[in-house]
Specification:
The complex is a heterotetramer, with 2 copies of chain A (305 residues) and 2 copies of chain B (253 residues). Chain A has 305 residues and is an alpha/beta fold. Chain A is globular and about 55 Å long. Chain B has a 7-stranded antiparallel sheet. The radius of gyration of chain B is 18 Å and the shape is globular. Chain B has 6 helices and 16 strands. Helices cover 18% and strands 36% of the residues of chain B. By secondary structure, chain B is α/β, with parallel strands linked by helices. At the A-C interface, β11, β12, α6 and α7 of A face β11, β12, α6 and α7 of C. Bound molecules: flavin-adenine dinucleotide (2 copies), flavin mononucleotide (2 copies) and FE2/S2 (inorganic) cluster (2 copies). One flavin-adenine dinucleotide binds next to β4, β6 and α2 of chain D.
């Protein structure tokens, strides 16, 4: 029974199961820890951290859409110093792997954050967010520029021995090029996908419903797009993939793994059911038992085309 | 905080398009404070995707009440539920009203569905405070005073009580308020709260307001519900976690 | 009451209202004519026509997703000759403007189709489909190549005096470049958007649910993406836009117009309610009356940012 | 073709997870033929987005019946509807069975929920044809013979009747079929229809089968439901418009 092996590897990063909580959908873990035992998770990806605190965009920042939601949080975060001072200590109380997501407005800022955090033992890996659609600097400015993403990957790798995961944007047609450059510059894995750019207008005021005008689309609506991007990378680039985008159930996790993911992240679902990740982990185990799958990781890229 | 499948004990239409729903939710009933809210999944499908936040309107034993306006898809689906059906409720959430303070008279100011949290608050306050309720609506049908007492109404169209909004009504009744150790508890549309802020600052009344904001999670993980701090230009509070009730001085409305 | 003016212009093309039925979601009009009076529509965009008949992809060709659907029809169509012989005569029985959508595997094939059809009086305009995600040749091969789209636009314009609308793909990050090249090469308008590339796997067989592996995502799930693309074009390029993507109600039509659309197309909704387009037209009229809007076209690009 | 809001007159569970739903749909009841189907919007939201196709199982006056298996989200939502609720029905759709032909005995071959269209067909056939029904299921509980008569059952596990599938059952009863002017009407899973095609070709039996396919529109505008023609390699039929019933010779299964 308990012989099922849910563990997965992302390069040198070993996780006890493939279920991570996605950046920006779990804060720094403290609120959601009231609902679940963080130690049961494969890992937590922290809200994007930048060198200095960011207040984020003015409201309205979120909007429900059909089968999804738009957010334009604008990388609101406590900043590097406060993160080290108050957030890491909390997370240290757990054994759950922490992947620290970094967002920045310049290449140097990425490097500076990674360098500073490299000595933090509590951090298992970095996820480099080059794909936030909701800030003017950084974010998609880099996410759509293959050379910039290559440079960032290489320079961050140079200042840390921790695994470096680069989070890719689905908003271009050439995700393969980005995955290739990440691999080439020594990146350990890619996460795909961040949100799709979207907007919505109030038909009476004729103003965008989000103050930032556009936002990032997440949730089950984007699941087919995420899967297509993951498959595209998986078929063309030999790099571990962390799959993200609209996961709502254990079945979705299996689907993402088949399409090429070594691990997955749960985002929007945390808002709807903060206990969902834990339920999914136990359902994945049941699935493995029922279908005689010894190693869940054998599903990764097991597609038959 | 609990996540429970709560059976609907009763669901009735109070007024046109205003529903009152009684839910069996013992864990929440036991721990909730006036002004806190619950976040409800109104369907088992992805439509709508997110939960819907509602103030806890009242508590009776193991039951909680929510009062809601049928506005869009979510509240429409909720209004069509039957007794015995189960809905998933997350709560209690947020910071409620602080009513332990050193005051004698609690002044309730409610605009429209802003009445929702006050049945519960009034019940608690009744133990040791005097209560005065100012309740406004567009027309007489929109004056919701469910569970309140000593109600002074106002309507935009003058069809009931004072003609004007709640804050104008309070201004008109300033003599009832002056020279009292009072605290105002308010809930209603943002323009009303804004006017009330001015009114309470001018008159030096203590005032707590329950605010609203689009929400995704309801408990602090999405950063979707900021409200600017009036003290620190670099700071936002989160409506869901730091609020929904704020001292009116602390926030920019 | 009846003074409300619902008519819109797309370059020289005048339509009595902005509601068109989208290519591939209404065949050649005959089946849906059992449900609605085609003459009430702003127009019909025919299923993509290619020089030779195409059988399309093998089944499974369609799949429901959360708030949307994937299709991999593969441009199944009767071919140019049969279109002229049997489909145009049917449509001639109506006064509704016909926009003929052309898909092709080569630049010459686009030109050849447009040249041949130029003499067909029943056709009011061409819509050039360079953005079908479901065929190997043509489709996205062109849709992601700015130069090819420019060449196709110019060459098609050269062989026809009818308005030429180019239908753009949402699968790239640079839709502005495409809209610009269409304008530059004399194109009369752009339609946006075609479907987003997506996929899905059967978790038991580990095979893609669609035989074609990937398909095109349509329906309300993609509405925010469509609106963002339309707004982007509208803010940057001075060319009429026909908005498409997830429209489900008259409110959506207004929203698409505010975001920059001169007219709109209804796609997936036709499958769910074939009478929806007609209801929407009458609701648009009610809306104009209620809010005192004399000319519906005044809404186009009326956003306040 | 009609699009109507049809009130549910009755909805019952026939067997575990197999539901029978009676709908008031006079226009459809009047015009539908056995083997045709309706396309039903099971919710008023976008979840699920598309309609769900179901064979018309029977007709009684102004009422139509559908019989369905609770499989996924759509059928689950449908199964939870109450009497009096209304669902939107589009139909009748497709080409039904052709049963006017020059035959004496109608042989029904149904696998599992393939039984759905036959109550209506049997009713019509009873006027002037002999009827013989072969009905298969995995276990005795899955042998659905609603509205059929002269039923010879088979089960995969042998728990009722012949042990094996429907086509094996028919082979086993070949003596009942030989030397008759008969026509086979079949509905069931594709592997069964495939085996039946071989069986009927070999024995030179006329055979019509009702096929299934993922559908978006149900009436020919999406091109989503192709089935290859056995005569012309360049041709697909559309299941929704040219079918769902085909002469088994005309299609590749
Ligand atoms: C802390 C809190 C407590 C609340 N308590 C109550 C209550 O006790 N009773 C009650 O009737 N309502 C309450 N609301 C508002 C309630 O959450 C919304 O009316 C509800 O979410 C609308 O859902 P819908 O699907 O019907 O409407 P939607 O289709 O989502 O929207 C319909 C209309 O409602 C507006 N709306 C949507 N969400 C909100 C929101 N969060 N706040 C304000 N307006 C919104 C939209 O802009 C739109 O105009 C509360 C909101 C918050 C944040
Ligand atoms: C012409 C026609 C007539 C039909 N008549 C009946 C009937 O009388 N009774 C009945 O129970 N079912 C019938 N079906 C099948 C029925 O439409 C599906 O079972 C139903 O759509 C499933 O919906 P769902 O949301 O519950 O399942 P989904 O969540 O959509 O899918 C659940 C499972 O059902 C499968 N499925 C989905 N759609 C179809 C489909 N169109 N055909 C076959 N399998 C499907 C899926 O692959 C999946 O395994 C018919 C289908 C067609 C095309
Ligand atoms: C409210 C919200 C905030 C987010 N913030 C971040 C962020 O700070 N950094 C980041 O890399 N991704 C962020 N994301 C993107 C998610 O991590 C994830 O990539 C995306 O939501 C898709 O997954 P989902 O569909 O499961 O939500 C955010 C998403 C949401 C909904
Ligand atoms: C089944 C199907 C077939 C389609 N076929 C075509 C086509 O042949 N040519 C084309 O330009 N677009 C085609 N489209 C794209 C639609 O015209 C439209 O751009 C897209 O569906 C988005 O709109 P919607 O969300 O309203 O459906 C097709 C869409 C669907 C769903
Ligand atoms: S609603 Fe998510 S942080 Fe407040
Ligand atoms: S289901 Fe649309 S053509 Fe058959």
């Amino acid at each position: 029974m308990s012989k099922v092996d849910l563990s997965v590897k992302i390069g040198t990063l070993k996780l006890k199961n493939p279920v991570l909580l996605a950046s920006g959908t779990v804060g720094y873990g403290n609120e959601i820890s009231e609902f679940i035992d963080l130690n049961k998770l494969g890992g937590i990806v922290t809200k994007s951290i930048s060198l200095n605190p960011r207040k984020g965009n003015p409201p309205q920042r979120i909007l429900e859409t059909s089968g999804g939601m738009l957010n334009a949080i604008g990388l609101a975060n406590v900043g590097l110093e406060e993160f080290i001072k108050s957030k890491i200590p909390f997370l240290k109380g757990y054994k759950v792997p922490i992947i620290c997501n970094i967002a920045a407005g310049s290449i140097d800022e990425y490097v500076e954050c990674a360098r500073t955090l490299d000595s933090e033992e509590a951090i298992s890996a970095f996820e480099i967010n080059v794909s936030c659609p909701n800030v003017k600097e950084g974010g998609l400015q880099f996410g759509n520029d293959v050379n910039a993403v290559g440079t960032i990957t290489g320079k961050v790798k140079a200042v840390t021995s921790k695994p470096v995961i680069v989070k890719l944007s689905p908003n271009g047609s050439n995700i393969i090029d980005f995955a290739k450059v990440v691999k080439q510059e020594g990146g350990d894995a890619v996460s795909a996908i961040n949100t799709l750019v979207g907007t919505s207008f109030d038909i009476f005021t004729r103003r965008p419903k989000l103050k930032n005008i556009t936002g990032g689309l997440s949730g089950p609506a984007i699941k087919p797009v995420a899967l297509a991007k993951i498959l595209e990378i998986s078929r063309n680039v030999d790099i571990p993939i962390i799959g993200i985008g609209g996961i709502m159930s254990w079945k979705d996790v299996i689907e993402f793994m088949i399409a090429g993911s070594s691990a997955i992240q749960i985002g929007t679902l945390n808002f709807i059911d903060p206990t969902a990740s834990i339920k999914i982990i136990s359902e994945l185990k049941d699935y493995c038992i029922k279908y005689g799958i010894d190693k869940l990781s054998s599903l990764t890229a097991s597609y038959l085309l | 905080m609990f996540i429970i499948d709560a059976p609907i004990e009763e669901i009735i239409e109070l007024e046109n398009q205003i529903m009152l729903c009684k839910l069996f939710a013992p864990e929440i009933a036991k721990s909730v404070k006036p002004g806190q809210f619950v976040n409800i999944k109104v369907s088992e499908t992805i439509a709508p995707l997110l939960r819907r936040p509602f103030s806890v309107c009242d508590v009776e034993g193991s039951f909680i009440y929510i009062m809601f306006n049928v506005l869009g898809e979510g509240t429409k689906l909720l209004a069509h539920k039957f007794k015995g059906e189960t809905i998933n409720v997350l709560g209690p959430l947020g910071r409620g009203f602080n009513f332990d303070g050193n005051f004698e008279t609690a002044v309730i100011a409610a605009g429209g569905l802003g009445a929702a949290p006050f049945a519960f608050l009034v019940k608690q306050l009744s133990k040791d405070k005097k209560i005065l309720c100012f309740v406004g609506g567009r027309t007489s049908r929109d004056v919701i005073d469910y569970g309140m007492k000593d109600v002074i109404p106002s309507t935009d169209d003058g069809s009931l009580g004072f003609k004007g909004n709640v804050v104008e009504l309070m201004n008109d009744n300033l003599d009832l308020l002056e020279n009292k150790r009072l605290k105002i508890f308010a809930c209603g549309p943002t323009p009303m709260l804004r006017a009330l802020k001015e009114f309470s600052l001018k008159n030096n009344f203590e005032c707590e307001v329950s605010t609203e904001c689009a929400m995704a999670c309801g408990f602090g993980i999405c950063q979707g519900c900021p409200i600017p701090s009036s003290e620190d230009a670099d700071k936002n509070y989160l409506v869901c976690k730091d609020g929904p009730v704020f001292n009116v001085k602390d926030i920019i409305l």
